[in-house]
Known about the structure:
The chain is mostly helical. It is about 80% helix and about 0% strand.
Amino acid sequence: MEHLFEILNPNFLLRNSFYVGLVIGFVCPQVGIFFVLRRMILMGIALPQVSNAGITFAFLMHTLGWHFFPHVESEKAMALTGSIFFTLFAIFLLAILERKGKGFTENRIGFTYAIAGAVSVLFVSWNPHGHSELISLLKGEIVAIPDAYLWATFAIYGIIFIFLTGFHRNFMLISFDNDMAVVMGKKVIVWDILLFLIIGIVISFGVMAVGPMVIFGFLLLPSITARMITRGIFPFCIVSSIIGVFAAFTGFYISYCFDLPIGPIDVALLGAIFFIAYIIKKCIPGK
């Protein structure tokens, strides 16, 4: 209980990491529900890895003296730009291929994941500096998050949540029944582009903060679990975020008490919640 009071103290040393984790735990599942509805689960695995490749590429370019923004000293700006560019390029390329082919095929997404993972390791290996920071990002060690990044997370994820809430019906319609959306006169391509932009920003900014493994976990596992135990869209959305926030809070508490890396604890906890929900659903009649 003493550790809990320390974490809830406004002057807690790691409060920024704690708050960022809660925001990600709340907002990412709201994006993840569209991966579930569109049956794009594998994309939720591949895109964080692509985003990470963009980050490692940007760090490598910064180390070699080639800057996206010559008058900006912070390498974080470069890393975020690389993350967003790689993620949006991948998501729109896959979307174009989807329209020309037969959907988000496993082959394309598996290829994207494999290549992104490989180049991430290569970019890290070629980078003579910043090796430990990049490895920490890959491992999901959420520790030092500056105030500026905390407020940027609040602002960006807050705006994303407002967009998701305000246009919820349209996003749901194009995700759940694309043909019906066309019949109703919705501009499906426009809404698809807006949704893909939101997904790209959420993943890019989140990977910068907590790493690809954590973003993958919060994007998919709460939504998959909620889909399994709820009926109806509204409960699905609410329960997804409840699971995400609970895992973020509890994972941070466990990590702080036992001095363990936060990211793996969060993902393992989300996996445990899914497993428990699955057992309950299978063992209790009517569930």
